[in-house]
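HUMAN: Now follow token order:
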Amino acid sequence: DENLGSIIPKYLKSVGFNIIWVQKTSPGQQDFEILQLAVIENRILITLDKDFGELVFKEKLTTTGVIFLRLKDESIKNKKRVLLSLLNSKKDLYGKFTVVTESKVRIKSALKADMRN
């Protein structure tokens, strides 16, 4: 999502993750459009925006996965640490809504858009 800033997407790419940064490819899109783009691109969305929880659970929009960072320390160093730990954990995040704090990971099932080949 756009709210991560530019350093986190560049970092994730530098350590080998295949990422698309919305700010670069589709700036200014509405949240539901970003969620739809993630489904079309078969990607897991990483965000700091709690509105995606409403879209997934209240509006029942399908998802290929959302990682919601709910961090007390939103420093770049902490975001990198928390994300790298989660992404390297081998947890199945596909089609799930994952809430991540510094000390806890909660994974909830969501209405999955199953686009895996």
